Amino acid sequence: MRMLLISLAGQVLLNALFLLCVWWATKKGSQWRRIAIGWVVFELLYFLVIVISKVLYHSRGEYLRVGTSLFTNYYVFIVILMMPLLCGYFIIWLLGKLNVVKQAELRLKLRSWLLIVLLPITGALCIKGYYNSINPVATHYHITLPYNGTPKELKVAFITDLHIGELVQKEVLQKMVKMVQDEQPDYVLVGGDQVDYYFDYVERDPEISELLLSLHSDKSRIFHVLGNHEYYIDNEPKRKWLDEVGTLLVDSVVQLSDSLYLIGRDDAYNESNRLPLKSLVEQVPEGATTILLDHQPIEPDVERDLGIDLALHGHTHDGQFIPFKWLVWLNFENSYGYLHRGVTHYITSSGLGFSSSPILLGTLSEVVIIHLNLEGEK
């Protein structure tokens, strides 16, 4: 219900903003105004039909998922369009106030042409964003960690935010699996939000499970943690499934080698029940090297203070598209990429999948390959 209300509010506000921008760029009684009003009314009515169908038929969201996927793409289009458009409108208004552009008719024409020019540009950007979403790339990091043992090199594949569901199709998963297999990693770490919302998408297609199992020839070297989307709905079947396609770590510590330990945390969405990181670090022998797998990058200072060597996170999607990319950057110490601060190396991945809309602008769908050099004194 919460997501439904947010989606409905977004529909009303963004459509109103779009209608207002068309209003400012057209003459009273013009055909374009009538078309814009008709489009907005149609969109809102169609959205209400989808909501009512969900309520009446209790289809576990099937109707809502199919319908809202169209709307969320429209949301993204409007958000991207509105940024330069409103900035341009403000400049035109300011030029009018400064008597640089005195004629109201000329200001109207400038607003009209700005809207006409930006519409196809925004469409092209969204097409590029869709291309980014279905073509994951491999991002490589080379990191040296102190290690109280025989020096060794390890390759770790880190994937997160798969968001398997209606939007992230099986073809994207197949590309990801092929990329991981080609790298032949020693371990595969999966950082949460494996399933978008409803688990029935996975249940209906056994090949999805086969794909995740094929990430490594040894199932015991595939580790999962939970993300916030695992808690939204169908939590129990998701947990059982993740333990079938690897090993699910929920506030757990496992030994990867003689002096290398992996800590898998429960997601912060389950804040009242997940253990403090300190209690997990205390289970690791003193002087051992630690890798932390935790979906949300919200405790970097705690990770540093407790001496975590490598912290792996997802969740942020690197903002998914501008302008949210900049907002996410303001909200997290490391919203994307690599950061070394204190004793801790941080990697936050933009993830393989996406939320709500298959459009990635200013970021990419990625698989992270970490080349670990373990040597020296801890």
Task: Give a brief description.
The protein has 378 residues and is α/β, with parallel strands linked by helices. 47% of the residues lie in helices and 17% in strands.
Count of strand segments: 12
C-alpha end-to-end distance: 50 Å
| Overall 3D shape | elongated
- The neighbouring-strand order within the major sheet is 1-12-2-3-4-5
Low-confidence stretches: 58-67
Quaternary organisation of the protein chains: single chain
Instruction: Provide mean pLDDT, rounded.
Output: 89
In percent terms, what proportion of residues is strand? 15-25%
Number of helical stretches of at least 4 residues? 12
Helix/strand-derived category reads: alpha/beta
**Main beta sheet, described?**
6 strands, mixed
* CA-atom Rg in angstroms: 24 Å
Helix content: 40-55%
- The helix/strand series, from N terminus to C terminus, equals HHHHEEHEHHEHHEEEHEHEHEEE
List the helices and strands and how they pair.
Blueprint lengths: L1 H24 L5 H27 L4 H36 L6 H31 L2 E9 L6 E8 L10 H14 L3 E4 L9 H4 L2 H8 L8 E3 L3 H5 L2 H10 L2 E2 L3 E6 L2 E5 L12 H5 L7 E5 L6 H6 L4 E4 L10 H8 L5 E5 L2 E5 L17 E9 L4
Parallel strand pairs: 1-12, 2-3, 3-4, 4-5, 7-8, 8-9, 9-11
Antiparallel strand pairs: 2-12, 6-7, 10-11
